[in-house]
Amino acid sequence: MDPVPTDAPLAVSARGVGKRYVTGDTTVVALRGADLEVHSGEMVMLVGPSGCGKTSFISIIAGLLSRDDGALEVLGQDPAKLSHEARTRWRLRNIGFVFQQFNLIPTLSIAENVAIPLILQGVDRVTACARAAEALREVGLGGREGSGPNLLSGGQQQRVAIARALVNEPRVLVCDEPTSALDGHTGLRVMELVAKMGRRPGRTAIIVSHDERIYHLADRIVHMDDGRVDRVEKPPPRVHHAAT
User: Given a cut of 80, is residue 109 above it in pLDDT?
Assistant: First the structure.
């Protein structure tokens, strides 16, 4: 893959980001001054042990959670400085989020599921569904627009979730363990699709993953531990597993 130019603009700049969860008398510190810079056109993978703060970090970057400490700019904007309504509009225009559990609505067709971000932005239903059908074709599900999610395999459902995240052409794509429910072969195909679509001009992708089989697809591997960024490395070469 071609390296990201060193003069590419910053899409994400996080400095000293902290996050605490308080329940009664108990305080859990999720982030302890996390720092991260991600350039436009780059795909970064956040890795590390469970509970080290990865999901909290990407949720703050995506504007889904507020931070308690530090500074953050995403596409030149601090989401915390926006009102709830303005932050929702900003997120709909600029951020695509692929959730670990797909979060598809079973009573809607997959085209209707993919169209939701557009409809929430005020796009008329006919136009939104047409754009959703185009997004489904891009992820290899053309002709299945009217299918319900329950008729699809796990890998196909994840492709629908990716199409939904990308249908509004977001500038930042964020994925939380996108291969956790998939077998190795399907997971690799899904991540190759994410890499292809997430690196389009003007786009950036941040992926949380424990799946070492997909690390080679990243531009950088960001290791987290105990709520901080511990180190940043180049991706390892692709590992080929023998068939069993």
Answer: yes
**Rounded to whole angstroms, what are the CA distances from 237 to 47, 217, 240?**
16, 9, 9
**C-alpha to C-alpha distance for 118 and 172, rounded to whole angstroms:** 16
pLDDT of residue 186: 80
> Mind listing the domains of the chain with CATH numbers?
41-63+82-233 (3.40.50.300)
Q: In what order do the strands lie in the sheet with 95-98?
A: 95-98, 172-176, 204-208, 43-47, 220-225, 228-233
Distance CA 75, CA 170 (A): 11
Whether 244 shows a pLDDT value over 50: the answer reads: no
Residue that has been written with the tokens 């008729």 in this structure = 151
Question: Which residues neighbour 36 within 8 Å (Cβ) at sequence distance 6 or greater?
Answer: 12, 13, 14, 44, 57, 222, 229
22: which 2 tokens?
Answer: 């308080």
Residue 191 — pLDDT band, cuts 50, 70, 90?
Answer: confident
Can you state the angle between helices 125-138 and 154-166, rounded to 10 degrees?
A: 130
Q: pTM of the full predicted structure? A: 0.88
